Backbone:
């Protein structure tokens, strides 16, 4: 492993972020050694896509790492992550909300989540449609999902060279969050996060008001 190169790329990404924007280092398919090298530089927030991979790595790494789950999560995998996961970014169904809530209760903790919204012009990406989010959130305060803390929204833009389209998609997500926050729902007092932007569309995401970026390639190199 090229520790020098890793440190340089990490610094470059980190120094390019406005203050207050959280860098989630996406470590899927990276070794425990690579993660530890970044940890030794002081970094604590790491993002993983695959439950099995995360389950294997987590016990081998320091306990104060904040593990973000950023991939598509199947309900039958929730139980493995519920005891320790810091934030689940890609919550994209009611079934998943139900399962996360149940497993959070069993683990005796609250789990922080972001709702994934389908903002891209691509069928392969997951998420709720724009229209589904408000009705869903207006239910969440009574009998539903008492063990979950709704922290905001997550989106993935279309993989395209068309910058204007990417910007429009991110701006749309930011607008939806503003619309939700304008309701001042008491149980959404912590609905502050907008997880958007990866190596290829970081600048557009930051311009649209991202509070969390998920960056893999620009830090660790090509997968
Ligand atoms: C892999 C992945 C990333 C990071 O992508 P890079 O292009 O390597 O920065 C970010 N978000 C999600 C959801 C991912 O799956």
Residues:
């Amino acid at each position: 492993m090229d520790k020098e190169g890793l440190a340089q790329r990490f610094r470059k990404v980190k120094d390019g972020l406005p203050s207050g924007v959280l860098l989630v280092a996406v470590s899927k398919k990276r070794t425990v050694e690579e993660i530890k090298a970044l940890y030794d530089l002081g970094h604590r927030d790491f993002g993983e896509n695959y439950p099995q991979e995360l389950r294997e790595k987590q016990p081998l790494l320091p306990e104060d790492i904040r593990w973000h789950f950023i991939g598509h999560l199947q309900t039958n995998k929730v139980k493995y992550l519920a005891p320790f996961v810091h934030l689940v970014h890609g919550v994209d169904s009611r079934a998943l909300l139900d399962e996360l809530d149940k497993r959070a209760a069993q683990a005796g903790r609250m789990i922080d989540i972001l709702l994934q919204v389908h903002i891209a012009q691509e069928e392969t990406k997951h998420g709720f449609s724009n229209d589904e989010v408000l009705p869903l959130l207006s239910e969440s305060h009574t009998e539903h999902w008492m063990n979950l803390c709704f922290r905001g929204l997550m989106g993935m833009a279309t993989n395209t060279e068309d910058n204007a389209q990417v910007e429009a998609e991110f701006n749309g997500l930011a607008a939806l969050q503003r619309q939700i926050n304008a309701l001042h729902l008491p149980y959404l007092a912590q609905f502050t996060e907008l997880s958007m932007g990866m190596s290829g569309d970081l600048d557009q995401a930051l311009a649209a008001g991202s509070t969390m970026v998920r960056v893999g390639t620009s830090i660790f190199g090509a997968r």
User: Anything to note?
Assistant: Residues 3-220 form a domain with the TIM Barrel fold (CATH 3.20.20.10). Residues 26, 28, 49, 70-71, 156, 198-200, 214-218 surround pyridoxal-5'-phosphate (CB under 6 Å). The chain has a mean pLDDT of 95. Strands lie at 22-26, 45-48, 66-69, 87-91, 111-117, 148-155, 193-195, 212-215.
